[in-house]
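Worked problem 6 (solution included).
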Amino acid sequence: MPLIEDALRDELKELCKVLDELGAFRIGVTVEVRKILENRNCGFKKIKLMIDSIRVKDGVLYCVADVCDVEKMFCIAESAVKPPSLFKNNLVVEFDGYKVFMVDFNADNLRKFLKERPEFGPKNLGKKARLGLGVRMLFTLQHLVNVLKEINIPADFQLSAGREFSLKDVVNAPPGVYPEWLGHTGLDAETLYSSIALGCFKMGFDNYGTEIDHLIVVRQPSRALTRILSHGEQMGEHASKGLEASMDYNRRIIDEATETGFVRGITVDASDLIRYEFTDLSKWSTESVREKFLMEFGEEAEEVLHNIQPYHCYTLGDVKISFSEEDVMRISLKYRLCLLKSKELYEYFKSRVGEDFSYELSLDETSEPTEPKELFYCLAECKRMGIAVDLVAPNVGFNKREDYKGPLDTLEKRVRILAAVAEYFNAILDFHSGSDKSVEVYRTISKACKGRLKLKMSTIYQLKFFETLAEFPEGSEERNVFEEIWDYTLEYVKKRALEGDKVAEQQLREVAERMDRPGFIKSPKDDFFRYYSFIVVNAKNPDGKRIFMDRLYELSSRREVYGRYFVKVFNVTKTVADALDLIRASLE
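Solution. The predicted structure is:
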């Protein structure tokens, strides 16, 4: 039995007596029990119980506590009960028929614990209606969990692989080695997913999933991805270019993420591999398409054709879909490479985590809305290829950081048909670029999907934090930091404009005109800032030191900043969840 000081031993005994008297080993923590525990907790000097962390399973109580300024995880059980193997050799107190086990609360121990008690960790939420929430700054997680507990809905926590989080080598590299946008949160997979799992466990929140969002596959990766692939070494001309560099980068992301033990799903986006030319009748005649189809699919050609059943009318409620043989050949060629590479990453992830994970096929990074017939083909072909699709993200006409501008009845009809296609294949729709839409838009898509949907938001929470800082008085540290990041973002946009970024050029002109007017004030609502301020969190000076990250995290913990930011996070999340009808549905 590990040695612990008498004062701590006495407090642990007292804590057990209190828990026993309150019936916590049988009923857990009720509102009344919580109030009593909060009062008793104040009397302890060596141990501070994190009351939210208390969980009870089969008469065994698990919790986290601060013990002499070190976070510890406890298992408290009757003497006859066998504890999970993590605690087996870590008994610290035994008295009156109870045993108290204690270990350090860290990612390694939590990972071991969840292998035996998976119900207390991240889940594969499968086809459950929910939100997908980006945790770009780790301090946002606590606010998100508090909101989700309050409104009682599930969510996936996630970030986009590459753009938002990246490999350790990338986020910690000196400035100039990789583009600033690559891993712009400064987070690697271990930091991100371990922080999520530890944070949710401490806060007693188990109704969540974790996902690697947007594993993006591209034809021609930038030199940044080539450098990642080569580990900085010189490579041959053939190896340094092309699709496999992109695939290998994604495999390395999967490796680092799955090693945490806390990832339960992936989204693969191979939209860049869609070959639009095959559905262009002016470029490919019927005969040339047939010849190409037979050549590419070979022995599978007949199976692909019969999988869709040309000239058969598929009835999906009030939606009817049918294909000619030529339709099947053209669409199959269009999506052939996209689906093949998606399957490779699906199988690779499966080899790392086993069967229990959610998979999302992303088709939204396209210039036009997804055609129902093409979505039907993709899901049918995924099924034939052995890819179990839980969620699919078609292009429904949404743009990042913008409200939907088209007629709502058009959106409703489009989404209703796409949702019917997804449902036919036992999948649900996921809506990307979900921030900044009106309540009417959220209600429209929820109605069209009959409430069976997922919606992803990420940027909005970072922008709301910057808004919080901007609202402080002129001359305050909070306002000064906001103005610094506003200035940094402006310089970044100038660089992007010089590189030919048309959006940056337009937004630079707009803010320049505004800056020339009397009474100009730097605003978090400036378009260039809304679009490009993501860049500041991992921004580094020439010495490699992060310019803003530490200050942003420190400011987030200040009482007034914390309170104001929570209100913004709460209002955004609750408004969206309510408009999507997720709150009402959770009560049924």
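Discussion: The chain is about 45% helix and 15% strand.
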